[in-house]
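Design review, sub-item: ligand-bound model
Attendees: FS, YL, KQ
YL presented the inputs for the (2S,3S)-3-hydroxy-2-methylbutanoyl-COA complex:
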Amino acid sequence: MSVVTTQMHGDIAVVTIDNPPVNAASQAVRQGLLAALQATEKSQPAAVVLICSGRSFVAGADIREFDKPFLEPMLPDLLNAIEAATRPWIAAIHGTALGGGCELALACSHRLGLSTAKIGLPEVNLGLIPGAGGTVRLPRLIDPLEAARLAVTGKPIGAAEAHKLGLFDAVTEDDLLTAALTMARDAASQPRPKPLLSREAPAVAAETWNTAIAKLTSKARGQHSPHEAAASVRDALDHDGITALGLERERFMRLKGSSQSAALRYIFFAERTVGKTPRTKGITPRPTANIGVVGGGTMGAGIAAAALLAGLTVHMVERDLDAANAGAARVEGIIGGSLKRGLISQTRHDTLLQNFTTASTYASLATADLVIEAVFEDMDVKKQVFAALEAACKPEAVLATNTSYLDVNEIAASVKDPSRVVGLHFFSPAHIMKLLEIVVPETVADDVLATALQLAKSLGKLPVLAGVCDGFIANRIMSSYRREADYLLEDGALPHEVDTAMRDFGMPMGIFEMQDLAGLDIGWAARKRRATARPASERYVDIPDRICEQGNFGRKTGRGWYLYGEDGTPQRNPEVEALILAESARKNITRQSFGAEAIMARILGCMQSEGAAILTEGIAASREDIDVTMVNAFGFPRWKGGPMFLRDA
Ligand code: T1G
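KQ shared the predicted structure:
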């Protein structure tokens, strides 16, 4: 059965693509479209409606085909042929028209969008640029600066905005096919709009252009594709359509072979494979509409807000009324922030807060389907909370801990039915960070695991399954390269040198800046907790303890690895640097100088060896779990794929 079929509706030919899950423009789809074009050029219907079955219009070229040479028919050639068709082609768009899907729509003479549709050019997120006319046709249809915005940011836009920009000729709330047939009949009786490729490109003054592009590419950091996309749109303004199309294709093919695109394609698929385990195949999750959160601090409030924003009902419990009110204020602050930023309407804001209650007794959790504990990181405190939860909650309720380090097996063993306990490790801020580390204790029931995965999906989180060990995947790797960074200080580097090397590598910030932001007291407490377990043979750097003993805990005290003035920018801290030199001398370490590459070789090497140990121990099932964790928890540069991908690349 072809993935492309054609049916006549009166004098209109309706060409339907049916290639689940997202109608990617695979070779079969391209062949089917070419056949439909050749057939309609012969049969000469009044017009052609191009529509897709399933959940979406074409969501792009088939990314799985990118690691092999492309097969005929080539998408650019097919789209040129559709643009040159003798009958009008109306693209009827629902779901998402992305990348090659947007380009296909641009090759049609008219575009109709369902009011819920989205359209965009996300190729930059794969280290690419549009490769079938997107950067050439779009600036000939809409304002070139808007075209550049879509191509450089990769962010899709909604139907209303697409209509306002002129990308959609019309938007409908009604049945898409019916509306498209009406538009096709109108188009058949009207003069054809001039094909985009043969239109003059509007001029844009260099200064206006450079200012706009500098702003659009300011967040690219080390990723090349946003700059390449901008250059391709510029080419389209400076050349005729055919020439620009050739330039765009050259640039696209070069990027397709680049290491950045290989890494970004790897992460694209890795993020869609993590969180899948045969253990939950065919298992029905337990309900999660009614969530309990114990603890209203930064993490508890963030978790509560994430659940509310996902449309769940949330009950928060704190040790007393004051703490409960403080927790409620934090949650209201987060939800209020979403309102201020226009992410939610006033009505939605009010509805969400109606789904939120706070209390200082566990009794309010009697009907909760799942409870997440987010209290102080102390084992005894956690066990007390779990004992109280077991007494207050219904037996089938799932009990989850947000611990970021502690032994989840020990917490599970502290209740009568350990099979209902699972780790749900959120990252701060919990209502923003996409990663959710699902920590799998030995005793957890399959349907409890399925419930945790289901909750992650409903919260819009990226779930990674991690075994129980100190720090699971994320913090275990972070702790290892934080240790390595401390060793580098004793061996000859200084905090700003390590941080600069990490930033230049593409990390959002260096390890010492990050610790100052999080608060040095957290690491100090963890080191004290681990002191007894630490093998005597393990190298230990005392510098951070010395800093904390002086009451310097980073940004919150204005002093840490760095000094923080009024404007909050980190300044080198001469006291700390003197302390570092003194510690090297005290340990008779001859300090060496480290260039950025040498520093990153040690930091990355450390991430990779800890990652390898995590795989060997089965704490993570695949390198994808580790790379997705590092990219989404600590901002490891996506365009490098992750520490394990880099090791293997
Ligand atoms: N190619 C191949 N498979 C794809 C795909 C694609 N373009 N898009 C999605 N899938 C698979 C995905 O791996 C998953 O598979 C399933 O579909 C559902 O996806 C020439 C060069 C469309 C917004 O970058 O952003 O066109 O895990 O889980 O959350 O200029 O998928 O079930 O086996 O993500 O509802 C440009 C990529 C390509 C869009 C739907 N297009 N896709 O999100 O489902 S480059 C993109 C997405 C290009 C041309 C260039 C999202 C989505 P599995 P999902 P979702």
